[in-house]
Amino acid sequence: MTAQTITKTLVDSLETRGAEYTVWDAKLTGFGVRVRPTGAKTFLLVYRAGTGRTAPFRRYTIGAVGKIAPDAARTQAKALLGSIANGADPASEKRAKRPKTEDVSFDRLCELYLDEYAKPNKSSWKNDEGYLKRPRAALGRSPANTVTDDDIADVLDEIADEAPVSANRTQSVLHKMFEWARQPGRKYVSANPIRGLERRGGKETSRKRVLSDEEIRTLWWGLEDPEVPCDRQVALALKLVLTTMVRPYQAAGALRAELHGLRTAAPEYHMPPHRVKGRREVVVSLSPLALEVIDLTNSENQIPIFPSKYGEEPQPIRRSALSQALNDKPSEGRIGVRTFLGMEHFTPHDLRRTAATIARRGGALRTDVKATLDHVDGDVTAVYDKYDMLAEKRAVANILASELRKIIGCRPESIDAEIIREQLPYLRSAEMREAS
Fold first, then answer.
1. Between β-strands 31-35 and 41-48, what pairing exists: parallel, antiparallel or unpaired?
2. What is the pLDDT of residues 9-57, one digit of tens each?
3. Domain ranges of the chain
């Protein structure tokens, strides 16, 4: 690829390909930005360690795009080249500073994996961090190289007793971590102890849970009950998932600055690359019903749309807050939203599936719903077809809003979970009479 001046505009425009590639800077020899198929972008410097043509080439990672600006990365590259000219070898020095295998505890290995691999390469790194909590609590002090498959299996079996799917996800993260840790240049462990280990959570079946109309109405108005056991911001974030089809973490992490045209005919939520699978910016069309949910947050004066009550600085609610609000927590004597409303098990992600089903039932085309869900095609044509389908997504959003309004009806006189359930048969009959 022809060298170009590396600027923020250029870096933001670089798209993923089927293989890793590097764009080199036209002004500073050896300075470039690497783009991985996952969408991760990293500033790097390539140089010769020593003088003469026989001196080996070294590759030094400066930092991940998003954590360091292009100008700052170039400044750091210049400083490194100055030290290299005086005989330094920063790549070798960095390797020498790595902790020795016998000094790396399991807890430290998890920390290294998150900092050096998951955070720079995975938009879902917080999921990895969450899945590693139980293993870290159980095995944290053990030297990483002494952890066995039996040790891991014991932890996974404990998780599987409560949450089989979570056990499988934890096992996948651990497998990836050990594979990463045993590679040349790291060698924190000599082998992956769980390679070939059967899934401790058992075989999984595809999720098919879709809430019925009665359940949707119960949930919608039940979340307005003053006694509902969850914070107001969490309740509204759950509603935003249902009205937009965004993923739960994309609703929880939304910022005010990412909302555009709220008082126009085409309001949108512009999701940044770090909050999207594949590290792409995605535009979500907001229906009038979704705007009503957002308006209830008073977000005009807030940096996050759904601010957390924890921490001194304004920050969004945690991505796990939505699922935790639905679940009971017997250890704290707390019931979740599902139990409070007398509903069968469902997850925040099931609201997304429910919304897609309602939109299809209302007449939205499958291809348009697929675009709204941001389900990306994996074929070659998708690499070249960059049509954003905003008009189609706007139509889906409006169909979904119309169908949801029919389902939820008018606000009950008393917002009480038991009363809502008692009124449902009558309210549904009334809606059918009105429709006829």
1. antiparallel
2. 999 899 888 788 899 999 899 999 998 887 788 999 999 888 777 888 8
3. 8-95, 101-181, 213-435
The answer to whether domain 101-181 has CATH 3.30.10.10 is no
Gap between the Cα atoms of 176 and 117, Å rounded: 10
**Fold for the domain defined by 8-95:** Double Stranded RNA Binding Domain (3.30.160)
With bands split at pLDDT 50, 70 and 90, how would you rate the model's confidence at 284? very high
* pLDDT tens by residue, 191-211: 999 999 999 888 776 678 999
What are 247-278's pLDDT values in tens digits?
998 999 999 999 999 889 999 999 988 788 76
Can you tell me which residue has the tokens 């606000």?
Answer: 411
Q: Do domains 8-95 and 101-181 have the same CATH topology?
A: no
Contact call for residues 186 and 138 (beta carbons, < 8 A): no
> Residue 201 contacts by C-beta under 8 Å, 6 or more apart in sequence?
156, 159, 160, 163, 164, 165, 166, 167, 168, 171
Do 112 and 188 touch, CB atoms closer than 8 A? yes
Q: Which of 209, 240, 215 is nearest to 417 (CA)?
A: 215
What is the rounded CA–CA span in Å between residue 221 and residue 420? 8
Between 125 and 222, whose confidence is greater? Answer: 222
Report which of 50, 59, 13, 4 is spatially closest to residue 35, judged by C-alpha positions: 13
Question: Which of 157, 203, 196, 152 has the alpha carbon at shortest distance from 174?
Answer: 152
The fold adopted by the segment(s) 213-435 is hpI Integrase; Chain A (1.10.443)
> What's the pTM value of the predicted model, to 2 decimals?
0.60
Q: Of 244, 240, 288, 241, which is closest to residue 265 (Cα–Cα)?
A: 288
Angle (CA) 293-298-300 rounded to 5° is: 110
Separation between Cα atoms, residue 111 and residue 181, nearest integer Å: 11
Contact criterion met (CB below 8 Å) for 259 and 240: no
Six-digit token pair at 425? 């048969």
Backbone CA torsion sign across 137, 142, 146, 150:
negative
- For residue 84, what are the CA distances in angstroms to 43, 92, 93, 145, 410? 17, 11, 11, 34, 71
Question: Which residue in the block uniquely carries the two structure tokens 């425009």?
Answer: 13
